[in-house]
Design brief:
alpha+beta; elongated
Length: 156
């Protein structure tokens, strides 16, 4: 490294005063032109990225507002049992027992099945506007087979 610097120093000292002035002026001119261009380009890129992020955030906000406006339709008392049975059939669960506990509340027990089916049933109940108040899952075999018991009621 020292040899390179020594040779550059010797080259610079070998230039005439006029050549040194021209090189110095050229370097200053390049920095005066390229510096602002680089700064403008950086600012323009930042502004473009910020606009894209703002548009994405606005789209997410609109989606959230749309989903919030839809919301779950509140289940009516008689519809909760029907919703539970239809949801069970949709996910492949077989009810073993249903015990009514008031006008809008009941306990449902399913035959042993895959645990994912039970979770899907809970999801469908929530989407239908019902409230699953209590959940009891007990493993009865290998490969995620569980016995499921739920207490459900009409949503708020």
């Amino acid at each position: 490294m020292g040899a390179v610097m020594a040779s550059l120093g010797a080259w610079w000292r070998g230039l005439t005063a006029r050549e040194r002035l021209m090189l110095t002026g050229g370097a200053i001119l390049v920095f005066l032109v390229l510096g602002p261009v680089w700064g403008y380009q950086s600012a323009a890129d930042f502004r473009h990225d910020a606009a894209a992020r703002l548009e994405a955030a606005r789209a997410v906000r609109a989606d959230v507002a749309r989903l919030k406006a839809l919301g779950p339709a509140p289940a009516r008392a008689g519809d909760v049992r029907t919703l539970a049975l239809e949801s069970a059939q949709a996910v492949g669960l077989t009810p073993a027992r249903i015990e009514q506990r008031g006008e809008d509340q009941f306990v449902i027990v399913f035959e042993p099945a895959d645990s994912l089916m039970a979770y899907r049933w809970i999801d469908l109940m929530g989407r239908g506007g019902a409230l699953v108040q209590r959940t009891a899952l007990a493993r009865v075999g290998e490969d995620g087979i569980v016995s499921a018991e739920f207490e459900a009621a009409a949503g708020p």
